[in-house]
Amino acid sequence: MLTLAGESLRFCNIDDRRRFVIRLSSSPTLPKPLRESTAYLSKAPHDTLPPDFPLYVLVGDAQAAEKLIGDRRAVILPEAYAYLGSGDILRITPHRCAVRVLYRRASPNNSILLTERCNHYCLMCSQPPKAADDSWLVDEVLQTIPLIDPETRELGFTGGEPTLLGADLMRILTACKNWLPRTAVHVLSNGRRFADRAFVQAYAAVDHPDLMVGIPVYSDLSTIHDYVVQADGAFDETLRGILNLKRLGQRVEIRVVLHKQTYTRLPYLAEFIARNLCFVDHVALMGLELTGFARANLDALWIDPHDYQGELYEAVSHLAVRRIRVSIYNHQLCVLDPRLWPYARKSISDWKNEYLEECKGCLRRQECGGFFSSAKLRYSSHIKAFV
């Protein structure tokens, strides 16, 4: 698991208390006009630092770094950040001596948090909502987007619930369209705000060339869906939102997290989707991430994935035979029914993807999705290496 954030790091000659966003470059010959929003990245053993960068980020031996800095503004990071490279983007918070990695150029798994506010309290939420005012994140995202490599294949936006930003979400998507026209954008949303026709029309009017929204539907029964998301009426609003989106030609993915509350009716949900939502662009059937609220609700949620293979195979078969694109996320090949392997994807973000001791020597490890770093809390009793 990669270290993406830390506090009490070494900050040198930085008096400004305001947080700021900056891109990294390890090129000492970077043209001066491009240095204004760029920090020079130096890794141990440290070389001579080039002049005229507004900030220097040094990774590795702190004592060696301090000898080079002089009166330059600098941040010294430990070896845990040795993965950083040119084009990566950091948030620097001087008054807390804190750093957060917002974007990694070499990663295919870049997701940006838009808000921690949400109108759901899902039983298994991996990012529990907070009521605090975090509207400053919008300005940060709008500063970040122009710094992102325009050749980035895909960018995700998550929350909380991004649609609670209202018009600010459209500003962000428009910025992506203008600055990153070749980058696919994927927004995670509970879908309820799209039941508002004025809102969905504003979303469609952005006219982004490659935009998809991922919306959870946890059951064919409203009572089960509303219980999982802990919000009365959510099922009906979510379905109206999906219908409104597709009416305006927008791409929609349905996401289903599999756990004890959802797996029994999974075949019925697949049939419901095939009959009523056959126009959606993708269905993702997802393994449980044991973090956030899922830890507190573990007994109500956990089921060994091996034990729902029958329901999973039936659901995938329902969807596939009707030519609805379907994928299985966050599952290990040794647990899946072999007939489901063609639908399995390596979907866990690289910074939190790990393998267990049982995986050593497995011949299919490179094909397997692996585990969330939180999986050590509980995992299938059927994990075994293919040898």
Second CATH tier, the architecture of the largest domain: Alpha-Beta Barrel
Largest sheet: 8 strands, mixed
Q: Quote the distance from N terminus to C terminus.
A: 26 Å
Low-confidence stretches: none
Beta-strand content bin: 15-25%
**Class of secondary structure makeup:** alpha/beta
Overview features:
10 helices, Glucose Oxidase, domain 1, TIM Barrel, single chain, seven-stranded parallel β-sheet, 387 residues, 24% helix, alpha/beta
Chain-wise SSE layout:
Layout: E1 5-6, E2 10-12, E3 20-25, E4 38-43, E5 55-59, H1 62-69, E6 74-77, E7 89-93, E8 98-103, E9 111-113, H2 136-144, E10 154-158, H3 167-179, E11 184-188, H4 197-205, E12 211-216, H5 222-229, H6 234-247, E13 251-257, H7 266-276, E14 282-286, H8 293-296, H9 298-301, H10 309-321, E15 326-329, E16 353-354, E17 371-372
Question: If you had to describe this structure to a student in words, what would you say it looks like?
Answer:
With 387 residues, the chain is an alpha/beta fold. The protein has 2 domains: 99 residues, 3-Layer(bba) Sandwich (Glucose Oxidase, domain 1); 267 residues, Alpha-Beta Barrel (TIM Barrel), CATH 3.20.20. It contains 10 helices and 17 strands. The strands form 3 sheets. It has an 8-stranded mixed beta sheet. A 7-stranded parallel beta sheet has the order 9-10-11-12-13-14-15, with helices on one face. A two-stranded antiparallel ribbon has the order 16-17. Strand 13, helix 7 and strand 14 form a beta-alpha-beta unit. The longest helix is centred in the middle third of the chain and has 14 residues.
